[in-house]
Amino acid sequence: MIMKKTYLAWLIAVSCGATSPLMAQETQDQSADKTAEEKRIEEVLTIGYSDSIKRAVQEQRESSGIINVLKKDDMGKLQDDSVSDALQRIPGLSVERDQGEGRFIRIRGLAPDLNSVSYNGTSLAAPEAGRRAVALDVIPADLLESVVVNKTLTPDISAGSLGGNIELQSMTAFDREGSFYSFTADVGYNEQASETNPKVSGVVSNTFDVGDKADSFGIAFAGSYQDRSFTTDNVETGGNWDLDEPGLEEFEQRAYSVTRERTGLALNLDYRPSDDSEFYLRSLYSEFADTEIRQGIVTEFSDPIGAEASAGGEIVRELKDRKETQEITAIVLGTKQKFDDWHVTLEAGTSKASEDQPFAIGGAKFTQEFDEGLGYSGLKRLQLNAPDTAYQASEYEIDEVEVSDAYTEETEKNVKLDVAYDWLQPSYQVTFKGGVKLSQRENSAEENIFIMKDFADLGVTGLTLADYETSSNVEYGLDRFGPGASAGKLWDMINTFELQNFRDEVESRIASYEIDEDISAGYLMADMGFGKWQVIAGARYEHEEREGRGNRYDDELETFTPVSDKFSDANWLPSVVTRYDLSNDTIIRAAYSTGLVRPNFEQVRSSYYLENDDGDLKAEFGNPDLEPLTTQNLDFGIEHYDETLGVISAMAFYKDIKNFVYEADVAGRPGYENFDEAVTYINGDDAYVYGLEVNFVHQVSGFNNWLDNFLINTNLTFTDSEATVDWIDDGQLVSRDITLPSQSDTTANFALGYEVYDVSLRLAANYKSKYLAELGDVEDSRYDIYEDDNLTLDFSAKWLINDHVSLSFAANNITDEPYYVYTGQKRYNAQYESYGRSFTLGVQLINW
């Protein structure tokens, strides 16, 4: 019964802002026995687990806004290695994947760059070049105590999101009583790569007496390490279809070999000298090292052709070999003080993120020309039809080797002060709150690109792929592949030269830029409670100063000019959030809020490339004058709790978005009348997104047999959106409507659990419908790129051996669901990838 009810609590905790009272109580004797047993188990194996579920339930139900909470023991339930994998099971959230692993989170159909991530109130810096979205696969789930997703934005939450804020909250020693430690070891296996993958994690915490104050100082430490190796089979066209013919222009087959290492550390100190005073330090370090070897076959036809047809063309065998390391660190130092009815919080925080990719082979190309005999077959999984010479290494000549050395860094520093006053009256109470925050963000990107060509002229004697080929043919599950290139042999050749002599000055300097962003913010709000009502009303003010530095290159004059741009902006962000307790079991929620997201750094970079191509004037550049995206949000919903049902809730939402950003060719517009092509980013007209989240949790009961052990949890989110893009055609401004990129019409989760005594089983499905991934051609909807609908199925099991030891098993991607992207229609492949199934065995020891 204990596991059955804690599992139901878990199901409730991940539903949309919904909680449930305990199920019908047992007889008085059974309750007494259960209470004693729960106390015993909490102190050993499940210490912190039952308590964490109760706190998640209480936090969501008492919240004035719409939030979701995941506690530490919820994350990793299905071997969700990272925060992103765990969050995808929350209503209204879906994940964008990389190599089959969750990386970025979408909230209510809005792209990851339109949502914010913070760590104990400090905005996290983003490690990926040019983006604001934080890649949450960098952060192991083991390092956190809880994650709170705010879908309504109150004035005390920093601006930076349209969809919502993901708040990562660290563990503290005071989350548990006294000394606590746990150790978990997992062994994973990926069937496609035939690799075993270890993972270990541990948590240690304790409280200590200081002076006369018992348990006033706490230390909590968490660590995690995972080494995961796998392969990916890929075939993609990249949208290279001529749909007027129709025919395929080129496609690429890729075989990935990937090793990913995740290392995470967290150290948190707390000192509580009295009930009214608290000092704390929160720290986080996470490293994500991604080593990737990609063998590719690029087939380019002389003319667009259909399936089973034949033509001449060129095949390029290409190698990319790189190690990319992303790091995120965050430190928060703060104090909370209470003086009668006054509450003061003072915090200073900093976050740093970096992405380091030192001296990688960005592309080593070996080419072979064909007068005839090239073709393809298949639809989603295209296969190459080619003569036998296409699989002979000696027939490929070395054409070009590109080496890149790239580093991106972003730092965020902030200090904030929050002051609150409680005004308590017999029939109502009001908390007045206000605060200020100053933050500085610095973003820089630097890349050096080296290109080597004409190898015979350089005195290189190895001029064919046979001189650099791997010892065996490349393993590729989608088609015959043949020989690959060896990175080691290529580096032996490259290292005989002075690499700096091959630096591409133009590409290197255009790719490098710096941006400084200073934000001053303040807010005032009142949290009012009277009778069955609770209302939060207030506004936030944010002022931004941004300065960017980059380079302008004129191809005709072959000159570089330093470029510096400045931007200033200010915004008021009001909000009103309410809840009404219709009864003890039913809550109505409503909110009006406003949000703001600043454009990505890649979009506002001060870089400009000007080219005169045989009289055609072309340019590509960033747009430092982009306006921030803003939104007005409406939310309304109802939650009902029932002892036998669990919970059922529905939440409707609407977002009116202004200044959404997209890439466009502005040639012919004012200022660019003489250009034949001018590609940059611009603000679009208004856009909107609306939808409905529905959640249902049910514990089967009334059968008085094994059927009562089943638990059901399902949530559905239905979303729709519309935006308008425009362009110049024959001097006329024309437009078309699109859905917002990354917005799926339907996302859904379904979990079926079976709990009895010391065994817990769970089968979970996650679904998202197709969505617009990118505009292939602004002027022609036929070339829009869509990600196909995706359904994954996962299974987990846990067995409690005794009070201190448990065993777990998980199977992920049971149906071997591929990743498929298409151009306009499903028959036109843009990308197809398969990852294989993964299995994990684990053991956990707690307070042994």
TrEMBL record:
GO cellular component, one term: cell outer membrane
Key word Signal present: yes
InterPro entries referenced in this protein's UniProt entry, alphabetically: Beta-barrel_TonB (IPR000531), Beta-barrel_TonB_sf (IPR036942), Plug_dom (IPR012910), Plug_dom_sf (IPR037066), TonB-dep_rcpt-like (IPR039426), TonB_rcpt_bac (IPR010104)
Record-annotated TonB-dependent receptor-like beta-barrel domain positions: 364-814
Residues covered by the TonB-dependent receptor plug domain: 60-164
Membrane topology: Multi-pass membrane protein
Keywords attached to this entry: Cell outer membrane, Membrane, Signal, TonB box, Transmembrane, Transmembrane beta strand, Transport
SUPFAM superfamilies: Porins
Source taxon at top rank: Bacteria
Localisation per UniProt entry: Cell outer membrane
Signal sequence range: 1-24
Major location category of this protein: membrane
Record PANTHER family: PLUG DOMAIN-CONTAINING PROTEIN, TONB-DEPENDENT RECEPTOR-LIKE BETA-BARREL DOMAIN-CONTAINING PROTEIN
Similarity comment text for this entry: Belongs to the TonB-dependent receptor family.
Protein name, per record: Outer membrane protein
Lineage: Bacteria, Pseudomonadati, Pseudomonadota, Gammaproteobacteria, Alteromonadales
